[in-house]
Recover the amino acids of this structure.
């Protein structure tokens, strides 16, 4: 079930009313309802993979308790590694097996041997990378004695499967979400209205920005050999806005939906395209994944302790793993590597924490220096996204070489003026709201209701105007 | 909570009223589907030859040039499951039916309307042909089309008094004509690419196999001949097709027609009688090509009719 589908528009109000009315505010009943709804939500995509989700949940729940109850360290270690290896094993089989088998076969072919690898013809279970990472963080936190194992199976299952975050995050932590599931939730009018507002903004980003950009980005990337350099740049810029609108739009809908049920999820995006360097970009893009890698990979590897070289090594490792997390394709690995290279100067010269606050905080306009820094960071990001979007490395390289030709200085063959206008309005709204959780959180809140509602109706009409075909969210495939 | 519910209801009310009115207005616009349904409802009992299928038949067969009382009920991207559903719906009304013509083209076995980018068209069958669809979303016009396109349709119908009908009285599509023909090289390249399945979809193949078997079985019960045709295309299209996809399709239809006496297959895909001026684009005929193709298919049907006549006499 997609967030931008009619099915979800029917599903959400039903669950909402049952949650607040039929359960009479009893949290135990609310959690059972959330679990059933979440499993239904997941089963709408493919019910067969529901068993995998349930198995993963039972495994982590059980190993969590076993680790908590373990009388000695080796026993605890056993249950920990059992959970880690089964979780990563599933991820490996469903997501990476074919990639390794095919890569191995082509590597062997370079030595003159021919092998026909046995490949799996299975589809990737939607959200597997996300719920596996939920489970992993939970067992690691128990192993490291940061949290106690959850004894209530329903509560734990809701933590893993809560439908707003089930298929594309944010990647939650037990320390943040479980206490909210365990406590009594009381309906909060302001929170609920805020949730609706965030859903509306998320839908706008997805349907109006991402899906419209997708039309042109797909056409340019799929026929890249036919376009001149300037059009190829335009295609890459459209994809840059597509992936942002798509994923941050999804996250906004997820956060807004959770808020309707009185639950706060982790923030996933904080205006990444206004970043002044790559380190800032990574603090603002897919925050729940970046912090996951920081806490469960970068720091255990030694983090920034141990000198400059270990810092460099650890940074490369997390970016490579992050690239690989996105998918079993060399394009994602190169994308990760490229970002690691981008961030290196700030790691080496220790400037990676120079820009912690949002740009031009408290001001209306940024300085020229800030504009230049934002422009450079954006350009580097656009270049990296080409690898992310391309079918394979060859495609990415030919796309980039197609850009740097004489035709770069000719007019683009595609000129979607309406989309240019939409992107301009979008950037403007994001800029005006950049100091808030999401762009329209406080935009015009003090204005008379008539003006406020006219703005919301304009967003709704824009969504209806540009809707027409449900587009899959990009991050569903990861 | 009450305040919140009221707020949502008040905010949504104009939108809901707007959407319902919009749906009502859209459904009353006459279009190819409603026209073809009305025609079949009134004239099914007279029809001798029924042309089903996708845009290749819609723009490739003009029943005006057929010697039989025939009707073209093909529509853009109509897949075999919908061909079967339409035939099944009118099977008892088609009392004089002698022959059905169905295209088996490059995409026929590997795509179904419900799975591809054209799935929005499925609403036309649910709304106008009353063919049930498991997905309730295909019961509505308003959620299966772009708002701007729908606004244009409403303006054209209610203000300019122009319908959405783009076919002649016998169902032949008139939009693809020689006056607005497209570049054959360019369209050959894009169409062949779009029609090639990057990953062969076995589920669609199995689904289409079943639809084919159902059509043949039903026709057999009614003693009706079925002619499967691969429609003519231009070399800029057929030279770029994936050999596996094409061969699997042709081999399957050859196999199935060999097993069923009432089913016949003719391959016009690379037919040299069709030249550049017969095409609207690399995989669709224009009105000149359609006249030629209709005559060829018509003579085939006549042959069957003559053979049948003598066989009956004997």
């Amino acid at each position: 079930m997609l967030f931008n589908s009619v099915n979800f528009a029917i599903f959400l109000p039903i669950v909402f009313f049952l949650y607040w009315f039929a359960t009479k505010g009893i949290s135990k009943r609310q959690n059972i309802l959330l679990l059933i709804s979440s499993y239904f939500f997941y089963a709408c995509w493919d019910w067969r993979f529901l068993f995998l989700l349930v198995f993963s949940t039972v495994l982590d729940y059980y190993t969590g308790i076993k680790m908590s109850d373990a009388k000695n360290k080796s026993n605890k270690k056993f249950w920990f590694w059992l959970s880690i290896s089964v979780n990563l094993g599933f991820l490996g089989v469903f997501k990476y097996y074919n990639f390794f088998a095919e890569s191995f076969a082509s590597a062997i072919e370079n030595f003159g041997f021919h092998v026909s690898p046995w490949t799996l013809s299975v589809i990737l279970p939607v959200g597997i990378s996300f719920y596996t990472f939920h489970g992993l963080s939970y067992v690691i936190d128990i192993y490291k004695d940061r949290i106690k194992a959850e004894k209530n199976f329903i509560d734990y299952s809701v933590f893993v499967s809560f439908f707003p975050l089930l298929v594309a995050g944010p990647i939650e932590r037990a320390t943040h979400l479980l206490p909210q599931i365990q406590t009594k939730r009381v309906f909060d009018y302001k929170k609920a209205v805020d949730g609706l507002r965030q859903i509306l903004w998320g839908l706008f980003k997805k349907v109006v920005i991402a899906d419209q950009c997708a039309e042109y980005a797909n056409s340019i990337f799929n026929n890249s050999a036919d376009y001149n350099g300037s059009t190829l740049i335009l295609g890459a810029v459209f994809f840059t806005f597509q992936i942002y609108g798509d994923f941050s739009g999804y996250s906004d809908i997820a956060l807004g939906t959770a808020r309707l049920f009185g639950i706060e999820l982790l923030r996933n995006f904080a205006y990444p395209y206004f970043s002044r360097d790559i380190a800032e970009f990574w603090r603002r893009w897919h925050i729940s994944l970046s912090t996951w890698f920081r806490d469960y990979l970068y720091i255990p590897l030694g983090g920034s302790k141990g000198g400059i070289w270990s810092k460099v090594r650890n940074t490369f490792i997390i970016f490579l793993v992050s690239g690989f997390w996105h998918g079993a394709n060399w394009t994602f690995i190169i994308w990760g590597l490229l970002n690691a290279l981008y961030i290196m100067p700030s790691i080496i010269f220790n400037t990676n924490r120079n820009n912690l606050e949002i740009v031009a905080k408290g001001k209306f306009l940024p300085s020229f220096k800030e504009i230049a820094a934002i422009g450079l960071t954006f350009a580097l990001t656009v270049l990296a996204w080409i690898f992310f979007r391309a079918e394979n490395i060859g495609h990415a390289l030919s796309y980039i070489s197609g850009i740097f030709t004489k035709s770069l200085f000719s007019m683009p063959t595609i000129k979607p003026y309406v989309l240019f206008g939409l992107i301009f309005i979008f950037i403007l709204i994001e800029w005006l709201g950049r100091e808030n959780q999401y762009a329209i959180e406080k935009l015009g809140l003090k204005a008379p209701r008539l003006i406020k509602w006219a703005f919301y109706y304009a967003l709704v009409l824009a969504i209806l105007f540009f809707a027409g075909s449900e587009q899959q969210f990009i991050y569903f495939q990861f | 909570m009450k305040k919140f519910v009221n707020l949502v209801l008040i905010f949504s009310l104009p939108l809901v009223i707007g959407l319902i009115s919009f749906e009502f207005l859209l459904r009353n616009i006459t279009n190819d589907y409603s026209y073809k349904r009305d025609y079949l409802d009134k004239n099914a009992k007279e029809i001798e030859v029924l042309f089903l299928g996708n845009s290749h038949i819609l723009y490739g067969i003009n029943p005006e040039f057929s010697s039989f009382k025939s009707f073209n009920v093909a529509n853009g991207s109509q897949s075999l499951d919908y061909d079967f559903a339409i035939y099944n719906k009118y099977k008892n009304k088609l009392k004089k039916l002698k022959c059905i013509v169905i295209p088996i083209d490059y995409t026929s076995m590997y795509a179904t309307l419900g799975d591809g980018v054209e799935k929005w068209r499925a609403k036309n069958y649910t709304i106008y042909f009353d063919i049930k669809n498991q997905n309730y979303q295909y019961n509505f016009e308003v959620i299966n089309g772009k708002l701007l396109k729908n606004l244009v349709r409403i303006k054209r119908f209610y203000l300019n008094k122009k319908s959405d009908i783009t076919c002649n009285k016998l169902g032949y599509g008139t939009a693809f004509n020689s006056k607005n023909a497209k570049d054959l090289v360019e369209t050959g390249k894009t169409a062949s690419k779009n029609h090639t399945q990057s990953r062969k979809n076995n589920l669609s193949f199995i689904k289409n196999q079943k639809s084919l078997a159902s059509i043949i079985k039903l026709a057999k019960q009614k003693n009706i001949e079925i002619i499967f045709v691969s429609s003519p295309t231009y070399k800029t299209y057929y030279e770029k097709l994936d050999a596996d996809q094409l061969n699997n399709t042709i081999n399957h239809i050859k196999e199935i027609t060999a097993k069923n006496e009432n089913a016949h297959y003719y391959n016009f895909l690379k037919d040299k009688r069709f030249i550049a001026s017969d095409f609207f684009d690399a995989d669709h005929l224009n009105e000149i090509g359609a006249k030629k193709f209709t005559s060829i298919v018509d003579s085939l049907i006549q042959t069957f009719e003559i053979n049948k006549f003598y066989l009956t006499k004997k």
Summary: DSSP finds eleven helices and seven strands in chain B. The interface with chain A takes residues 1, 3-4, 7-8, 11, 14-15, 117, 120, 137, 143-149, 190 of chain B (CB under 8 Å). The mean pLDDT of chain B is 92. The two ends of chain B are 83 Å apart (CA to CA).
